[in-house]
Amino acid sequence: MANADSELGFEASLFKAADKLRGSMEPSDYKHVALGLIFLRHISGTFEAKHESLLADYPEEAEDRDAYLAENIFWVPQDARWSHLQANAKQPSIGKLIDEAMMAIEKANPILKGVLPKDFGRPALSAVMLGELIDLISGIALGEKSNTASDLLGRVYEYFLGQFAGSEGKRGGEFYTPRSVVRTMVEMLEPYKGRIYDPCCGSGGMFVQSEKFVAAHGGKLGDIAIYGQEMNYTTWRLAKMNLAVRGIDADIKWNTEGTFHKNELADLRFDFILANPPFNISDWGGDRLREDARWKYGIPPAGNANYAWLQHILHQLSPTGTAGVVLANGSMSSTQSGEGDMRKALIEGEVVDCMIALPGQLFYSTQIPACLWFLAKDKSNGLARGKKLRDRRGEVLFIDARKLGVMVDRTRKEFTDADMAQIAETYHAWRLGEGYADIPGFCKSASLDEIRAHGHVLTPGRYVGAEAAEEDDVPFIDRFTALQEKLNEQFARADALTATIRARLAGVMVE
């Protein structure tokens, strides 16, 4: 079975070659060097391809900025063009030349102001390494022709993002959500047209996959309007470049206060929301937002932002909007600090549509398993695939996907294309009421009465009948025998400890 990255070819070899060049430089630092140059290669290549075309057909327009802006192509000043940098790649001053190119591009294109990295000329950065990296990247999409080249460089940028996320471990998870997880969420929500939003957008992967979905289903760039917000300035820059390299127009906001405290898009409502918030964040400043209007289902605890994210997302949905949210497993069952009451309110309020248990090892930032929440502002309404969705009030779909996925290296797992299709098609069949059936161990459409009987816990294993399979298929008698032996061993230790204490007490003289 193919995994989500099976169509990738030369990207892996390219990354290995680029990674060798970084030497002792930390991946977190080198990331901005490599991605910055890939971005520069992209916008310059697109510009130069158009420039050559104009020289051949309309030479008088070759240096007319409007001729490029009309086709959504960034204007690249002469000394910032890749051909100029490539010609000077072996010069000791190449770092300074790259910085000057980045500054010139930002000046010529205000939308990129503050986005591009501009520290290539620092003494600690090897000019030889920069020259070799330029030569390596120069081999991407030679003779490029607009869309094909853009897609190719976009794939390279996305692949490099994922590889750097893996190298950085937990910090990598702050800017990158694994592609197979994002693709699963996008395939389930099917964002054909409308506004899409991510309140903690990282490097913009949710948006890239959404645009890919639209293109794969006969739509065109621009069918969806993209909005997002990001608190980390460095990550915001990655997102802006990631989207620009794909030719995607988006309104991505940044401020240091974050979405909870300075919601830049408070007045907008969205048809689709996709989010992977930081898990169990404890320092989100909830004590300063006790009276916030977003907390319709209960006041989130100051020590955990999970239910703040859920309620913020619900608040931003349009009347028929739907959302997919990645959260830690504890969100499905925790009763601490009123979370159980909030979960009950969400369920009884008919906004929880589907719950998915994910396998472990899918994420760079944590090895613990996570889950997906799918929310619907109005479960009695909505459209999908040109059809009206059935009234799903009184039901929640549970999917246990913990046994899906394949290991792609020693530490990380991915969903295969077949896995993603199975999950998404199950959800679509259930929502439309066409061909859905419960599958023991995988999916179950549970009634509110069943959920109430489980104390409003949303763990899929409780409903799909998979709990008995969680013991690695070890027969009950073997598990019982092992537990009995362990218990007997602990009893023996307790008896020995008691005897020792009694003996020592007997030797104590009491006057």
The amount of helix comes to 40-55%
Mean pLDDT: 86
**Percent of residues in beta strands:** 5-15%
Helix/strand structural class: alpha/beta
Biggest β-sheet: count, sense, barrel? 9 strands, mixed
Provide the domain count: 2
Total number of strands: 13
CATH class of the largest domain equals Alpha Beta
Task: Walk across the major sheet and give the strand order.
Answer: 3-2-1-4-5-7-6-10-13
The number of helices is: 17
CATH topology of the largest domain: Rossmann fold
The fourth-level CATH homologous superfamily of the largest domain is Vaccinia Virus protein VP39
**End-to-end CA span:** 80 Å
Describe this entry's structure for a reader:
The protein is α/β, with parallel strands linked by helices and 511 residues long. Helices cover 43% and strands 13% of the residues. The chain folds into 2 domains: 10-169, Up-down Bundle (Ferritin), CATH 1.20.1260; 170-468, 3-Layer(aba) Sandwich (Rossmann fold). The protein has helices at 10-21, 27-57, 65-69, 82-87, 94-108, 127-138, 147-168, 179-189, 205-216, 233-244, 258-261, 306-316, 339-348, 417-432, 448-453, 461-464, 476-506; strands at 194-198, 224-230, 250-254, 270-275, 317-328, 352-357, 370-376, 383-384, 387-388, 395-400, 406-407, 413-414, 443-447. A 9-stranded mixed beta sheet has the order 3-2-1-4-5-7-6-10-13. It is globular.
